[in-house]
Design goal:
By secondary structure, the protein is an alpha/beta fold. It has 19 helices and 20 strands. α2 packs across α7.
Length: about 600
């Protein structure tokens, strides 16, 4: 997909793709996300649309120049159909890759393929589709072809619909070109409000329209110190003189329920490889984990979210290339669980977001505000976990944790915030053992946090689960398009994913600590599952496998989002929180919405 910069000078040099004219007429924010920021995500509708376009891509006939297409004896029979025709015009400022162009003598007709059915409208199609077809007609005319109309092939009904090229449609198409450039130069547009267009949009999980609107409304209410009235019957969208729908201003937005517009869970699951005597190879669309002595394991690439390899398992180059081509991260860890690196194909295209992140990271007031939220939310989540699982937690500890969360929000610098977090950690871990159900022999007592190396079983489990959690947040941050190395609370440090650790803070108690508590209390891990040597304690391979399974069950568990009040899995929560942090970077919202369990 073509990509332009938001800067005016550069965007004027690049022609606007006809596909983006369709988008700007449908949703300006969608156009900006796709064209300027290079965002993309597939869903059922886009995958189905690609299958429809495969038919248009079949065949190798090309569109000949006007003088050749009508010359007798040129070896090309008339009529014929050219496929995947790409034309551009500097004068019109447009470019288009046409699915099919039917040629009959001196006359040509562009045919645009659409996956759905024909809408019941007098014009034969909605305005965005007609604008896209009109752009193709104008480009064909610009290159000397006689083209009076265009057509849309609706795959659901297997029929073509003629699109008349009226002066009004031509004017709307040229306005769409100018509007696309204006939107590209003007920054990320506001999301639509309570719009039915968001249902089925493949980028809805990236755009987060309802979430952004809800947070903007909350920010306006905080500024005005008042609550805006609820008017559910108000029209949420209006139309401009050219027929393009636009959202209302912030001041006119109304409070409404936040819709969950994307799946609650991700159907893809990770593949963990811990055995050393294995070979990971590619077989068609599957990864085969081949054990030297034992049965092989298969994983379909279509259903794989990422691959984590611990130790020195062998993976073939074709398998690595297949993972890169499909955007599936391959993460490498030491056998003990230390993160070593990952394969990188093409990183996220959203350069604008990274530049914004770098700029924000240089502002002390932004660093402090975000860090205050991360630490305060972590402390309050620790307090909630103690209240839920430790009936004997002292009132003094619970009181101090609440006060420390308040002090974190009032801290004046990152240094004092570090001190507050350390004090809260001492209170929290002093009560941690009370959440564990001890067997008669004991052995799972925790006397404070220790690491590098862990010196008791509980700390060994905590360290391993924290590494799993950091891996998940690192993947979420990278998928969103931010630089995981540039944090706000965790300052840049060689080899440390500061931003992933920032987001990880509030999830340590509710995900990692909760997994450890559950694994001990439910007998998933027992005392004889640990290896003790030279004062260090580590998990055995079978115990680590069981702990990974417990962690993955937690990641797949549905939880009610405390801000938006819909249920999604923890893995989806990580993505939503990372997306919302990216919106803070771009100025779409002011405050990062903390994830605090009740």
């Amino acid at each position: 997909m073509d990509q332009v910069s938001g800067s005016g000078a550069e965007s004027e040099l690049q022609p606007v793709p006809a596909r983006m004219l369709n988008e700007v007429a449908y949703c300006e924010r969608l156009m900006y996300l796709e064209w300027v920021q290079g965002e993309w995500a597939d869903n059922y509708f886009t995958v189905d649309g690609k299958s429809v376009h495969k038919r248009a891509d079949r065949g190798k006939r090309v569109l000949k120049a006007v003088d050749n297409s009508i010359r007798a004896g040129d070896g090309e029979s008339l009529p014929y159909s050219a496929r995947s025709v790409w034309l551009s015009s500097d004068r019109l400022g447009m470019t288009a890759k046409m699915d099919v162009v039917d040629v009959d003598g001196c006359t040509v007709v562009p045919v645009e393929y659409k996956r759905g059915g024909k809408p019941d409208v007098p014009e034969g199609a909605y305005l965005p589709e007609r604008v896209q077809v009109c752009a193709q007609v104008l480009l064909l005319r610009e290159h000397g072809f006689a083209c009076d109309y265009g057509e849309i092939y609706f795959a659901k009904e297997r029929q073509r619909t003629r699109i008349e090229i009226t002066p009004e449609l031509v004017e709307q198409t040229l306005v769409a070109v100018a509007r696309a450039r204006s939107v590209a130069d003007g920054g990320l547009p506001q999301p639509l409000v309570d719009s039915p267009k968001c249902h089925g949009c493949s980028l809805v999980g990236i755009c987060l329209p309802d979430e952004v609107n809800a947070l903007k409304l909350r920010g306006l209410e905080r500024q005005a110190n008042t609550v805006l009235p609820v008017e559910p019957d108000i029209a949420h969208e209006t139309a401009d003189p050219w027929g393009f729908e636009v959202g209302e201003n912030d001041e006119a937005r109304v409070k409404s329920a936040v819709r969950r517009l994307y799946p609650a869970r991700d159907d893809k699951v990770p593949l963990y490889v811990q055995s050393q005597a294995v070979r990971i190879r590619l077989d068609g669309e599957r990864l085969i984990v081949q054990h030297k002595d034992g049965p092989s394991v298969e994983a379909r690439l279509l259903n794989t979210s990422h691959v984590s390899v611990y130790g020195n398992a062998h993976i073939t180059l074709p398998a690595i290339k297949a993972l890169i081509e499909r955007g599936i991260p391959l993460l490498l860890f030491s056998y003990g669980g230390w993160y070593q690196g990952r394969t990188v194909g093409s990183d996220a295209k959203n350069v604008e977001l990274r530049l914004a992140q770098y700029a924000k990271s240089q502002k002390p007031e932004v660093q402090l505000r975000l860090a205050q939220g991360f630490v305060a939310s972590k402390i309050l989540n620790c307090r909630t976990l103690l209240r839920r699982n430790n009936d004997k937690a002292s009132a003094k500890t619970l009181f101090e944790l609440k006060q420390l969360a308040r002090k974190a929000r009032e801290s004046s610098c990152l240094g004092s915030l570090l001190g507050i977090e350390g004090t809260a950690a001492r209170y929290y871990f002093s009560e941690f053992t009370g959440m564990l159900k001890q067997d008669p022999s004991g052995g799972f007592e925790l006397e404070g946090r220790n690491r590098r190396p862990p010196r008791d079983p509980v700390n060994a489990m905590l360290s391993f689960c924290y590494s799993l959690l950091a891996k998940e947040l690192g993947l979420a941050v990278t998928a969103v398009g931010m630089d995981p190395m540039i944090g706000f609370y965790h300052q840049p440090h060689f080899g440390r994913q500061g931003l992933a650790l920032d987001l990880m803070e509030e999830f340590r108690p509710v995900v990692a600590d909760s997994v450890v508590v559950g694994a001990i209390n439910n007998g998933v891990v027992k005392q004889d599952d640990f290896i003790r040597a030279a004062g260090a304690v580590s998990l055995s391979a079978p115990a680590r496998k069981r702990l990974i399974l417990a962690f993955e069950r937690r990641m797949d568990q549905l939880v009610t989002h405390p801000v938006f009040d819909y249920r999604i899995s923890y893995r989806r929560v990580f993505e939503v929180q990372a997306r919302l942090l990216s919106r803070v970077m771009l100025g779409d919202i002011v405050d990062y919405p903390e994830f605090r369990v009740r």
